Amino acid sequence: MAGLGTPRVHFRRAGSTNEHARRLADLGAPHGTVVTASEQTAGRGRQGRTWWAPPDSSLLMSLIVRWPDGLAAPPELLPLIAGVAVCEIAGPNARLKWPNDVVVEQSGGLAKLAGILVEGRPQAGWAVVGIGLNVAVDVADVPNELRGSVASLERPSESVAPLLANLLSALEVRLAQPAGTILDEFRARDVLRGREINWTASLPAEGAAEGRRRGRADGVDGTGRLIAVADDGTRMTLQAGEVHLG
Length: 246
Fold this sequence. Notes:
Elements: E1 8-11, H1 17-26, E2 34-37, E3 58-66, H2 78-90, E4 95-97, E5 101-106, E6 109-121, E7 126-134, H3 160-175, H4 179-188, E8 196-200, E9 212-220, E10 226-230, E11 235-238, E12 243-245
Parallel strand pairs: 1-2
Antiparallel strand pairs: 2-3, 3-7, 4-5, 5-6, 6-7, 8-9, 8-12, 9-10, 10-11
Helix pairs in contact: 2-3, 2-4
């Protein structure tokens, strides 16, 4: 069986690699198909946010994953699997901010190095794992509204191609690992555990009431959900949503 990244569709300029990959998955593209771009004009993050990246500055890819072709852990762990793989190629300073950000710690807090967006059709047995990693982004060029919240590997743009190959190899290994291994690897890089956080309690959660809550992150459970301990001592698990420090 061919490794991840075969076949590959590359665009010099694309709207969204995830959109292209989703169309290919609907048409029956096989497990391991990857869509890449040198530039995205409509890149998306979670909650409909725009992904900012200058041309030829970032690793922009979307991978089609079908199960059980290459997936040992349950599909809901795909964001964590992708995060662990990105950290592996990004270096020892890369940490994971649940559920889908790769960050580095800076004096002002956490700066985002990579983002992950998983979309798909579970009933059809496929998902698209979108990853954007800042490789050659010059942080001096970051828009004012993002200043201080964006990090970069600060490598030359020629590094994107070898990093893509390394990331696909890391993903191939991680996708074949059991859930327990993935969770252990995530916990070893978990930047939220033990920190004060706030979140919206209307997210699907056990023991949650409506409204904004504050408390402390206490790691992830056996299904990859974030464990949060509210200031009033209520313990709950969050399946998805926005979590902020402090």
